[in-house]
Amino acid sequence: MPKCTNYTSWFREPMSGRCLASGRAACLCVLCGLPAAGKSCLAGELRGRAQTRGWRTLLVTYDELIPARDWQESEWKQHRKTVLMCLERFLHQSLSDQTQIKTLSDQTQIKTLSDQTQTQSLSEADGVWMRFEQMRQQQSVSHTHMSSQPLVVLLDDNFYYQSMRYQVQQLARKYAVGFCQVFLRCPPQVCLQRNRRRSQRVPDEVLLQMCERMEPPNEIRNPWERQSLTLDDADGITDGHLQKLMVLLASALENPLSPVQDESQQKEADRQICASSALHQADQTCRRLVSQALASAREGQASPDVLKALAKELNELKAAFLQELRKDVLHRVSVFPEEPLDMEKLLMDVSAAFQRRSRQILSKHRRNVTDG
């Protein structure tokens, strides 16, 4: 049985980003939001409408490709990377004029997942490849380039960091296809209620943690997110929602992205986006810690004057701390451009460092309360 490295070597070969030379339109559409926000229901409705228009559609559901498990952070990131590689291979085969490329199943002679004996011998990465291929086959979506129908790929995942969505946008840009994204905004309490009715629940603490980390599309800060639509889903998906989404998809199909021409400029832009995302999350973490410290002081019967002074000092500390962190992060992504920034570890370090620095301020104000 070939290892996954045999598959990944294919992606190291130079490719052309101009896969639409023959006029075939395609787009990647990211569906993002909290667990139980309604993404899967929306994806199903959207897929049905797109097919009614004669568009080929592939629904890529991350939860089906990456099974729920207590993954290590590095393992989880690798699986997400493998999904993107599967998607890239599908795009290349669907849009390229290179008719001699063999399919994944031809190259590896992989059977479907019903062959339990073979499945047990696969590595987890190989399993992602197999599940992607099975997903494509079950939806009767060909990966050959013969069809002239527009191709819409719907990506169903939480995509809570904008850097996750940016990876998809860059893939769309590489292949000169359209890109758009839909953010389902749903109150956390509604998501929690829906989630508790599921057969496979996401733990409440994980869902709430994801809510804190969620970075909704922001076209002002990130111009590449301008093809975005935010839907409020507290009461479910409406016909009006679907009509707006079909307009968004049509626009993405009609306006493919331009391939990257200057790699150095693109890499610098990638580093800035990575740093911006990290600093935004760090700011959220520090804000939460300041709020917790003030709440604790309030419970300790601190006077309004003490609370006011404490808030002032903690916010000043936060501003100085984030300024130092910004320099550190920008330096890190510049010196080690190929090394991915471990967001989870960064936020843990930020939390520990800020708490250490704020301890002296909190101790001083506790003494003031005791002396008073």
Automatic annotation (TrEMBL):
Keywords: ATP-binding, Nucleotide-binding. It comes from Cirrhinus molitorella. The keyword ATP-binding applies. This is L-seryl-tRNA(Sec) kinase. InterPro entries: KTI12/PSTK, P-loop_NTPase, Ser-tRNA(Sec)_kinase. The keyword ATP-binding applies. It comes from the Eukaryota. Pfam families: KTI12 (PF08433).
